[in-house]
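Re-running the complex after MR caught last week's input typo. The corrected sequence lines follow. Everything else is unchanged.
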Amino acid sequence: GKVRAPTHIISTISDDRGEEPCYAGVPMSSIVEQGYGVGDVISLLWFKRSLPRYCTKFIEICIMLCADHGPCVSGAHNTIVTARAGKDLVSSLVSGLLTIGPRFGGAIDDAARYFKDAYDRGLTPYEFVEAMKKKGIRVPGIGHRIKRGDNRDKRVELLQLFARTNFPSVKYMEYAVQVETYTLSKANNLVLNVDGAIGSLFLDLLAGSGMFSKQEIDEIVEIGYLNGLFVLARSIGLIGHTFDQKRLKQPLYRHPWEDVLYTK
Ligand code: ACO
Ligand code: LMR
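Corrected-run output:
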């Protein structure tokens, strides 16, 4: 009979062996002919299925809204300094990407984890936030350096508007909003930030689309797919900042002494 040598790699998302490459079984020609967008390609390669249009549109809106947030944020700053040190595109890009984490852009997965756990356990926002405080953990998805209760993040409002209009249910997002109402009663900077908005709304997308089993949702949240949206999105801006610095022929960056507190 046939003898199958053991393989060293298992792969389930794409296949380049045939006449044309396939993403999760969908040939390139169909992707082009049927007018698929980046949201569809992400659905195929990350979630291994075609998602309804409102879901892929939501993914694309996340990517567009998180593509950049000016030169002063951690990621862009690193990229700019690296580009000005004469490094190449990939080095400048990854230097910026490496700042993405629990404080900056990489709180989406934890926001989804904590909001899901708190909502599913029926905790009131008060019980949830105070329990986090007792544990000494900042609520992921809450808080911003420059956004305030009276100066909300437009990105959050746009995502919420899209979801309220197009999603069958936004129960996790509404829970995150209730958490925000409580945290804003404590301090004006404790708004629902873009990571928290995406984290809670992606839970609604996964649960409301009817395309994922409960086990699959748990796996997506546990593995942590969602920070990938910010990483992917912000790469667009970081690449732009690299080109910008090179186009402007900016010299080596050196931080001014006056802006450092030298102390013993
Ligand atoms: N949960 C509870 N309390 C908080 C939170 C939070 N998420 N954020 C700030 N606070 C409170 C704390 O009491 C803090 O005091 P502490 O330093 O004793 O803990 C006080 O507010 C002041 O906090 P700052 O450190 O001055 O806030 P800062 O403006 O530096 O931090 C940050 C902003 C990093 C976003 C913070 O709010 C945070 O850690 N949030 C959670 C992580 C997160 O969601 N990050 C994504 C931000 S959006 C983005 O990057 C695209
Ligand atoms: C961002 O998207 O980079 C921001 O929300 C972070 C910031 O400090 O503005």
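None of the earlier attempt is carried over here. The two ends are 77 Å apart (CA to CA). The first strand starts at residue 14 and ends at 15.
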